[in-house]
Amino acid sequence: MSSLVLHDQLDSFEAVSLAEILETAELLNRVDSKYCIAIADLPSILEQLDPHTRVLEINSQRRHRYHSVYYDTPDHDNYLNSLRRRRRGVKIRHRWYVDTDTAFCEIKKSGPRHSTEKIRISCAVDDVIAGTLSYESQWWITENTGIRGLTAQLWNNYNRITLLLPNGQGRATIDLDVTWHDRQESELQLIDQAIIETKTTDGRSEINRVLRMCGYRPDGVSKFGAGISALDPQLPRNRFHRSIRQHFPHLTSTNRKNQWSSP
């Protein structure tokens, strides 16, 4: 699918400001549903959405750059806990919103029925770029999780489109050009596919319905879990294994580069 086709689809929706999204649909406590879809299916999915859907626009741009750094213990405790379906699994990351040049240290805790609680504090962009936690961030993380000894384990970049769904349904994000690299600088790229995440109060919205009609079902593989499990073959995959085989059957490895590509 050409970028021009997607651009035309997005232009059919009115713009919404970041301030309005934060006011009406920030949803730090929410139900997340994740889908890995073929980019070629995006026009059909967007065409079926309510015309009152709006797209986040910042400085006349509707695609925005994100840079994330995920932290874990040297023994990968947070990753392994996610494999074991711990009720209160934890992800800890830095996120740099490149286009607004703002950055946060974030904690995401998983709860029952795919619910998610996210808390965050501001941090310096330089900390994100360096992949280091400041003393203040380390103290805040320990106070909220009890976890110590974290180091940067995974770097993740992508371009995001954010949709504000009508009638208070929440929001959805479409992530394109997704790439990862680890401490050994091995790289991973998502080819010809996008990741859609819906963020709602109850896991139900129009875009969830449209995706279901298009044959897509929620997939529990997060960017953190997918990146770690694919880049480090020594770690167990458990519940991620089936999803990785289904969505990324042509995962190939060379000395310093891996690729995920569609069939």
Describe it for me?
The protein is α+β, with helices and mostly antiparallel strands and about 260 residues long. It has one domain (about 1-250): Beta Barrel (Hypothetical Protein Pfu-838710-001). About 30% of the residues lie in helices and about 35% in strands. The chain is built from nine helices and 13 strands. Strands 2-7-6-5-4-8-9-11 form an eight-stranded antiparallel barrel, surrounded by five helices. Strand 8 and strand 9 form a beta hairpin. The longest helix has 11 residues, at about 135-145. The relative contact order is 0.19. Residues about 250-263 have low confidence and may be disordered.
Task: Indicate how many domains the architecture comprises.
Answer: 1
Spatial order of the strands in the main sheet?
2-7-6-5-4-8-9-11
The unreliable regions are: 252-263
- What is the strand content? 35-45%
Helix count?
Answer: 9
Whole-angstrom Rg: 18 Å
Instruction: Report the biggest beta sheet as strand number plus sense, adding barrel if it closes.
Output: 8 strands, antiparallel, barrel
Query: What integer is the average pLDDT?
Result: 85
CATH class: Mainly Beta
Q: What structural class do you assign from the helix and strand content?
A: alpha+beta
Number of strands: 13
Enter the CATH topology name.
Answer: Hypothetical Protein Pfu-838710-001
Query: Based on the structure given, which CATH architecture is correct?
Result: Beta Barrel
In CATH terms, the superfamily is: Hypothetical Protein Pfu-838710-001
**How helical, in percent, are the residues?**
25-40%
Shape: globular
Gap from first CA to last CA: 15 Å
Element-by-element helix/strand order: HEHEHEEHEEEHHEEEEHHHEE
Organism: Corynebacterium mustelae
GO biological process, one term: polyphosphate biosynthetic process
Protein name: VTC domain-containing protein
InterPro entries: CYTH-like_dom_sf (IPR033469), VTC_domain (IPR018966), VTC_sf (IPR042267)
